Structures are given as C-alpha cells and as structure tokens.
C-alpha cells in the first residue's frame, strides 16, 4: 500500500479488530501510521506498508450517522485533500454537510455487504467454513438426537429411551426409578444436558445426600461438561460476608447436600428468591411421608418442588419406605393427579387388566386377534375409544398388521401405563449384567452370646458387636474371619459394609493398625472431603486400599464397580437396603461376577435372617422387587424369630410361605404394573432407532474434518496424538484471545466415544462439546467469513464478468428454547447472479466455486470491490429480490412442518389426558402456548443475507 494513501482525518477500519469501530488517522510519519478509535478509546500504530486496515468510504444513497447521532442519507460526496465531505438530508429533510471526521465512530460492519464495501474481505477458507457451519448447525438442530449425544457415556438403549422421552417435554416432572446401578444419574445428566443445550433450562439445582455430592460434581463435569458449584453453609456465609446478597444467585448450576437445605428456612427462602428451571433430587426414597407424619426433608423438597417448573426425582427403591412414601413422591411431581392415597392404591390394581390385553397383543397371534377377535376388539374400544380402535382394526385387516399392532400397544402403554411420570428399568430387561454369587461362612458364636440374649434388642441381635461389648474387636469371630479372608485375598479389592458408622470406624482402625491391612473407611460422620479421599484411595489403580469399610448409609449411591468382592459384615432387615448394598458393585461397568461374602454366627438371628433373605425371598442372587411388600407381610414373624430364637417348625413355615408369597407377588407384578412399567420405560424399537439417530448424528469423520479447519482458522495448534486423538494448544496466533472450552494449558482430546470412555484424561470431542458448539456460535454469531473474493476460470463466461454469490438464512428473533431451525426445510438459500443480471444459481454451484475459485490478494480484492461497487450493489439488490421470492415458500414449508408435528403432539396429549390422569393440565397448556409462539415466530421470519462471495471470471 502506498504510504501517501494515509491522510490524517480519513476514516479507516481495522481488519483484525473490527470491534474497535471506525478509526481516524491521526498521523502518518516515518512509515508509521497512527489511528485513533474513539468508540473504543484505543489507539493503534502500524507500519504503513502492511497495516491491517481498510479505508471506509460511504456511497451516495447510504444512510449513516454523525457523531452526534443524527442519521442522514448521503446525497453527494466531495473529496478534498484526500478526505471526503458528505452532503445529505436527515429524516426531517434538513440538509447536512458532514466531513468524514465527524462521522459516528461506533459503527460496526457486520452485514456482509457493508463489510465487503468497507474492504473487509475474508479468506476463501473462512467463507467455506462459515457455510459448512450453517449446514452442520441446521442438521444438528433437526436431529432427534439433538442434545443427547454430547455425554461421555456408552449408548445404552434404556437410558437414551428415557432421556429422549423426558427431555422433549416442557418442564418435565418425572421419577427415575431404574433398579440400582442402571444409571439414573446418567439418565438425569442426559435430560439435563438436553434441556440446557436446547435452552429450555438455564438454572438448575441438584440436591443429594452428603456422601454423593462430589460424585455428582465429578460425573456432571467429566461426563457432560457441566460445571456445578457446590453451595454449603461455609460458602454461603463467606459470600455474604463479601457482599453477595443471595449466594444462590451466584451460579446457574448449583449442587448442594440435602442436609444443608433440610428444614433450613433462611436458605430455602434464598433459593426460592432465584428463578430455577429444574430441580433434581437424588436418593429420593429419603423423602419420608405418611398420612399422619411428614419428614422435614419431604416438606423442604415439597416447597421447592411446588416452585420449580421441572423436577427429576431419582430412587432405585421407590417403595423402600412403603407405598405411602411412593405415593407421596409422585405427589411431589403432580399434586393434582396424586391427591388421594386410597384411589392410588385402587388404581394400582387395574394395571393387571391392561397388561393382560397387551400380553395378548404381543403374543404370536396378536395381529390376527386384533383383526378378528371380537372380544378383544370390544375391550380395545373400551380403552382407546371407538375411533382409534376402529382405525387400528381396519389397518390390521387390510394387511398392515404389524404396524397397527405396534401402534395399538403404544397407545395402550401411553394412555393406560405409568410411563408419563414413572420410569423403571429392571436388570431382567437390560442385558449384560454379571452374575451374583453368594458365599456364606458359618462361625461359632462368641461365648457371651451363647448364654443370655433374652433382653437383646433387634439392633443388637443383628449387629452383635453391640452385645459383645467394648472389646468386641478381639472377641468377635467375624473379625478374626475377616483378617484371614483378607490375607487370602491380598490383591483383591473388597468392599465391606456394616450397618453402623461406629462399627465401621472401629473395625477399620483395628484391621489397619493391628493387622496391617491397607484399608480405608467411609461413613456419614466423616467430612465429605475425607470420604472422597477414602473412595479415591480405594479406587486408585496402583496405590490402593485393599478394603474399604463402609457404613450402610455412607456408601449409598456410590460407584464401586471396579471391585468384585462384597463382604456383608451384618445383614439389613430390609431387602431394599440389601439391594442398595449389592448395587455398589453390581452396576453398569462391572466386568466380573459379583462375589458376596456373608460371615455369620451359627444358630443366631443372623443365620435366620440370612436364610430368609436367601432361601425365603431370593434377595442375594437376584434383585428382589417384591422386597418391601414381603417384609411388610412377614416382618412380625421374622422379628419374633430373630429375637426369640428359631423354632425350626415356625421357621420352615416362614420360609415356605415367603417363597410362595414371593412367587405370587412377582407373578402379580409381572402381570401388572411392573410389566407395563418395564415396557413403557424402554420400547426397544424406538430406543434402537434413537441410537441409530445418535450414531448418524455423530458423523465422526465429518467432525474431524470440520474441527481441523476450525482449529486451523482460529490459530489453535493441533498435533496428532493417536488414531482418533489430538493434542490442542492455544497459540499466540489465535484470532481471538480465547478459544471456547480450551484452557491455557491446552488439552488432549479424542473424537472416539470408545476411547473417551476409557480415557477420562481426554476431552471427548463431539458436536455438542463446548469447544465445538462454542466455535460454531462464534462463527455464525459474528461476521467471520461472511465476505470473500476469488477468481475462477469458467471458459463459457466472458473474462472480467463478476459473479455474485449470496447466501441467505431464514432469520427470526425467537427464544432459543423454541428451536425453530428444526422446522426450517433448509439451512440456507443461495442465489448467484452475474454482473449482467443473469440468475446462474442452478448453473454455477457452490462446489464449482469451491473447486475452481482461486485466491486474490487482499489489496487486489479491495480494489476490485471499490471499482465494481456500483455493479455489485445492483446485483445484490437483484439477489435480495430473488431470495425474497423464496421467502414465503420457505416460511410456508416451515409452518407446515411445525403445524403438522405440533398438532400431532397436541392431539396425542389431548387423547391421553382423556384417559390417563398422569398428564398434567399445565403440560397441555404449555404445549399449546409453545405451538402458538413457534408458529407466530415462524410467520415473522425473514431471509437475511448472511454471506457474499464475489468471483471474477479470469482467462
Ligand atoms: N451409559 C453409561 N456409560 C458409561 N457408564 C455408565 C453409563 N450408565 C451408567 N454408567 C456408570 O454406571 C454406574 C452406575 O450409574 P449411576 O450412578 O447413574 O446409577 P444409579 O442408577 O444412579 O445408581 P444408584 O441406584 O446406586 O444410585 C456409574 O459408575 C456410572 O458412571
């Protein structure tokens, strides 16, 4: 660039820092030019021969503003001493004379045409990246897997089915009740992630038992890239002392323990003062409720639940505290629907009838029954109404039996199942779990216990260390047995659970200090940090504790599936607690059979309980969904046997009747609610289709290609690390100071889900990772790559012809949560005209230009644009007109798709509401309101020019 071109008073704009606004040349001395940017109050000095700036000259007809904010349209321009004087008229028709020095400095050149004429021309590679970004963005938003594929998790059908079912609702309120260890935390994470990504939720509160707070923190971060802030009394007080009014306002995602908020009026008030979108409560079986008494924790959660739109309750053992508490948790989800306990009890009995019908349809001759069996058809009428069932029967009769059958079952499950509020997958339905093997070790009872235990309490007989007295560690044969067992299994990680924290503490101290065992302890009386330290020591792969001694409640919900041995130092009376214990090891990720070891005294209460749990109700080797019901039924007989000693005949009778009752209840559950529940918790065909959509959505090779270009353009250094992984490092050449999701130290990242599952030290790069979505947002939300100039050799065209390619997007200022893109038929509208006004859109494609287009140096491009400005402007006008002609068709197509989909959803919900009381009225009104809002916004969409590429035909 010639030195003389910079003249003080001229207006220029920075090519690399457009956000500085319009600059003024203040000096041009010694081959250095200084530019003041008044809007940003910044000054820059550049070498005159390579200053990254462009001259700004407005053409006649353009509307601009003076520094005082007066808008005027330019009618004439005059150049004087290298600077321009603009003449124009303001809105009132007053004439103005404005030297360019007095123009508004805050202008931003974001529109592609403005940038183009301001000489801000991007590289061709950036232009192409912008267009690809728009396409990817649109494809992702339209996919049914949108929001669900970002987690570092295995693609398990039962989890994705639930997540998809729930995440697509507005303000979902559900109870996630999969059996222990099937991944409720992951399901909640998937739902949460989807709601956050789609903009349906922004502020989330998770509350969990003390022992799980860090586990949740880590799971959310490493699996879903969600960074929660832990809030506790100390942190709140510290924040308040440093001037924060309400500590809960300080973050969007907050995690706290249930003990912290329990009955804590002041903190609850602060929580309620914030606007939350979602509340997640883990181990929700702690929320105790009966018709006569409500626990403080229940009341606390009830207060929050009635103020927060979306609610996820998680428990593996929903009926652990009885049907009342189960009912009460459902009541938290929907107080209107669950208002009467007796009615609820009654309803439970009807599930069997629906299930019988479903089972008939599932049977081999289901299609023929549907088509021909008058009795079944009459029954169907009763459940689905005349219209629906007639249509189904007719399609079954006209050869579309399989489709009709599937639809019929779906309708029945939808309308008469429990699936709307309650999801429960069982191990029987989810494959791939290892076996459970029980080892029992009869021991001789210590002398004290052989004599007088008549006055003993139930707790004492079940935890006999309380009977033995202070020196139990020396006297208790279970301790000696443990010592020997650990010696024989030195290399095996073992989890030991006993009921009480005190016993756990004493036992661990004893085996560590007296017996030299590498051990750690974990119970509710420890600080959270120490608990997590102990768990980490146990989990360590090299320097690990051989045994982790846990109390009952302390270990609830924890992940210890890397261990294979579980010692039950005592046994809980409640089979659900037994299941919780086994569930620490028997969880997703367990690679071996689970070995359960139970040392017990012969002829003691423990021996009785062991046999009842094993022989009577088969609770060790298999999950026992009937556990609570069986305990209710037999608790009196069982406890009197435990306290008074075994009368063999009575005991045998107990075992036999328990077996029979267990079988009966299981059969009943299979016939009724549980079978329906299981079917509506995961419909395999839909789950499979969803996982296919997730795999399709992932398109790993496209992502690799896309991100390589992104990193390259943004100046992030990438080195190949492995077959699917890269090392990413920020550099001094980055075009912005920071790259989203990339820390100053850089990171290693893999594109492979399989590798990411095994290598937690690596980031899992997928379309929803913050680095990828952040980069996409940076590109589409800014002017990045929205102008380009190239030359092309296209022999039939006259050399010198200008080709103007314009890209439009259908734009609408709507809340993100409405996700309007999914209804739009295409990502962009492309129009291409030559300078003679010929529409060549169909003849010269983007691919042609991408392939044949050759780079033009910046200075030459700027000159070209300056000289061709008039021609280009008139072509751009034509392009806008041509695009506008498509606008109505596009909007109509979007409206059509949205109406079709939303009407279907509304109809489904309306039909459901008539027969299934689990649908909340507000769900329907919310859906209707959203439908309205989506359609209204779509109607106001406008095509907006997003990018321009000028190609000059060369010879
Ligand atoms: N899809 C998945 N991919 C990888 N790991 C998973 C997946 N689902 C679950 N896991 C792992 O399996 C274990 C059990 O999952 P999770 O803690 O979510 O189960 P849960 O049902 O909440 O258990 P609990 O009933 O004990 O509370 C965890 O270690 C979790 O990380």
UniProtKB/TrEMBL annotation:
Protein function: Transcription regulator that activates transcription by stimulating RNA polymerase (RNAP) recycling in case of stress conditions such as supercoiled DNA or high salt concentrations. Probably acts by releasing the RNAP, when it is trapped or immobilized on tightly supercoiled DNA. Does not activate transcription on linear DNA. Probably not involved in DNA repair.
Gene Ontology biological process: regulation of DNA-templated transcription
GO molecular function, one term: helicase activity
Coiled coil: 869-915
Assigned protein family: Belongs to the SNF2/RAD54 helicase family. RapA subfamily.
Binding site for ATP: 178-185
Broad enzyme group: hydrolase
Domain Helicase C-terminal residue range list: 481-632
The protein's name: RNA polymerase-associated protein RapA
Keywords: Activator, ATP-binding, Coiled coil, DNA-binding, Helicase, Hydrolase, Nucleotide-binding, Transcription, Transcription regulation
PROSITE patterns registered for this protein in UniProt: HELICASE_ATP_BIND_1, HELICASE_CTER
UniProt KW NAD keyword: no
Residue numbers covered by motif DEAH box: 282-285
E.C. code: 3.6.4.-
HAMAP family given in the database record: Helicase_RapA (MF_01821)
Start and end residues of each Helicase ATP-binding domain: 165-336
Subunit and interaction comment: Interacts with the RNAP. Has a higher affinity for the core RNAP than for the holoenzyme. Its ATPase activity is stimulated by binding to RNAP.
Organism: Neptunomonas concharum
């Amino acid at each position: 660039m010639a030195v003389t071109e910079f003249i003080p008073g001229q207006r220029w704009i920075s090519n690399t820092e457009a956000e500085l606004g319009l600059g003024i040349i203040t000096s041009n001395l010694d081959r250095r030019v200084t530019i003041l940017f008044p809007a940003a109050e910044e000054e820059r000095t550049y070498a005159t021969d390579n200053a990254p700036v462009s001259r700004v000259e407005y053409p006649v007809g353009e509307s601009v503003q003076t520094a005082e904010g007066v808008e005027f349209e330019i009618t004439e321009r005059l150049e004087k001493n290298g600077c321009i004087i603009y003449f124009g008229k303001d809105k009132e028709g007053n004439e103005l004379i404005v030297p360019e020095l007095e123009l508004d400095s805050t202008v931003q050149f974001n529109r592609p045409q403005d940038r183009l004429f301001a000489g801000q021309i991007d590289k061709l590679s950036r232009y192409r990246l912008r267009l690809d970004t728009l396409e990817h963005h649109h494809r992702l938003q339209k996919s049914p897997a949108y929001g669900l594929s970002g987690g570092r998790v295995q693609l398990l059908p039962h989890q994705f089915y639930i997540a998809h079912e729930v995440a697509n609702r507005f303000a979902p309120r559900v109870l996630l009740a999969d059996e222990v260890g099937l991944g409720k935390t992951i399901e909640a994470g998937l739902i949460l992630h989807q709601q956050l990504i789609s903009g349906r939720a922004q502020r989330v509160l998770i509350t969990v038992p003390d022992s799980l707070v860090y586990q949740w923190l880590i799971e959310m971060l490493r699996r879903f890239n969600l960074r929660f802030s832990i809030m506790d009394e100390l942190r709140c007080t510290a924040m308040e002392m440093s001037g924060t009014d309400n500590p809960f306002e300080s973050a969007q995602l907050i995690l706290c323990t249930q003990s912290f908020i329990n009955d804590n009026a002041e903190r609850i008030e602060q929580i309620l003062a914030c606007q939350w979108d979602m509340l997640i409560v883990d181990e929700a079986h702690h929320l105790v409720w009966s018709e006569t008494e409500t626990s403080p924790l229940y009341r606390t959660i009830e207060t929050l639940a009635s103020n927060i739109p979306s609610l996820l309750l998680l428990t593996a053992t929903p009926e652990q505290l009885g049907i009342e508490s189960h009912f009460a948790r459902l009541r938290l989800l929907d107080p209107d629907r669950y208002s009467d306990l007796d009615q609820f009890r009654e309803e439970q009995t009807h599930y069997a009838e629906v299930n019988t019908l479903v089972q008939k349809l599932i049977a081999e001759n289901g299609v023929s029954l549907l088509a021909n069996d008058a009795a079944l058809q009459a029954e169907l009428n009763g459940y689905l109404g005349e219209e629906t069932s007639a249509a189904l029967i007719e399609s079954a009769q006209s050869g579309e039996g399989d489709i009709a059958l599937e639809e019929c079952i779906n309708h029945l499950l939808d309308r008469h199942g429990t699936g709307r509020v309650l999801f429960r997958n069982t191990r029987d339905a989810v494959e791939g779990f290892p076996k459970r093997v029980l080892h029992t070790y009869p021991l001789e009872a210590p002398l004290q216990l052989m004599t007088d235990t008549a006055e003993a309490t139930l707790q004492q007989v079940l935890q006999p260390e309380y009977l033995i007295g202070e020196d139990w560690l020396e006297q208790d044969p279970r301790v000696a047995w443990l010592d020997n067992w650990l010696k024989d299994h030195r290399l095996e990680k073992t989890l030991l659970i006993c009921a009480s924290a005190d016993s756990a503490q004493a036992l661990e101290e004893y085996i560590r200090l007296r017996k030299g065992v590498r051990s750690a302890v974990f119970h509710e009386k420890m600080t959270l940090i120490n608990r997590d330290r102990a768990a980490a020591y146990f989990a360590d792969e090299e320097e690990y504790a051989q045994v982790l001694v846990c109390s009952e409640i302390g270990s609830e919900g924890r992940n210890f599936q890397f261990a294979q041995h579980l010692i039950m130092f005592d046994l809980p009376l409640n089979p659900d607690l037994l299941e919780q214990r086994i569930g620490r090891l028997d969880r997703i990720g367990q690679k071996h059979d689970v070995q359960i070891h139970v040392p017990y005294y012969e002829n003691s209460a423990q021996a009785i309980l062991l046999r009842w749990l094993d022989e009577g109700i088969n609770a060790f080797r298999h999950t026992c969904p009937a556990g609570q019901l069986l305990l209710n039924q037999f608790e009196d007989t069982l406890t009197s046997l435990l306290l008074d000693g075994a009368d063999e005949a009575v005991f045998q009778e107990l075992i036999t009747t328990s077996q029979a009752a267990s079988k009966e209840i299981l059969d009943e559950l299979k016939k009724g609610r549980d079978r329906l529940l299981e079917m509506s918790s995961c419909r395999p065909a839909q789950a499979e289709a969803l996982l296919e959509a997730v795999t399709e959505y992932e398109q790993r090779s496209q992502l690799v290609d896309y991100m390589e270009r992104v990193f390259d353009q943004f100046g992030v250094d990438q080195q190949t690390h492995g077959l699917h992984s890269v090392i990413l490092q920020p550099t001094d050449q980055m075009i912005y100071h920071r790259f989203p999701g990339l820390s100053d130290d850089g990171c290693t990242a893999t594109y492979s889900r399989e590798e990411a599952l095994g290598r937690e030290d690596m980031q899992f790069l997928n379309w929803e990772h913050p680095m990828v979505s952040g980069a996409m947002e940076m590109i589409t939300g800014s002017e990045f790559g929205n102008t380009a100039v190239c030359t092309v050799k296209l022999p039939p065209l006259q050399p010198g012809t200008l080709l103007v390619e314009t890209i439009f997007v259908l734009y609408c200022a709507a809340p993100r949560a409405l996700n309007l893109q999914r209804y739009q038929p295409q990502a962009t509208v492309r129009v291409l005209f030559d300078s003679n006004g010929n529409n060549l859109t169909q003849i010269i494609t983007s691919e042609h230009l991408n392939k044949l287009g050759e780079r033009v140096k910046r200075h030459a491009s700027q000159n070209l644009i300056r000289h061709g400005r008039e021609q280009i402007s008139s072509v751009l006008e034509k392009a806008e007109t041509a695009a506008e002609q498509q606008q109505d068709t596009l909007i109509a197509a979007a409206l059509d798709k949205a109406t079709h989909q939303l009407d279907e959803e509304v109809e489904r919900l309306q039909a459901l509401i008539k027969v299934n009381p689990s649908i909340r009225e507000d769900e329907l009104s919310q859906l209707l309101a959203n439908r309205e809002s989506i359609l209204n916004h779509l109607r106001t969409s406008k095509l907006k020019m997003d990018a321009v590429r000028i190609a000059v035909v060369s010879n």
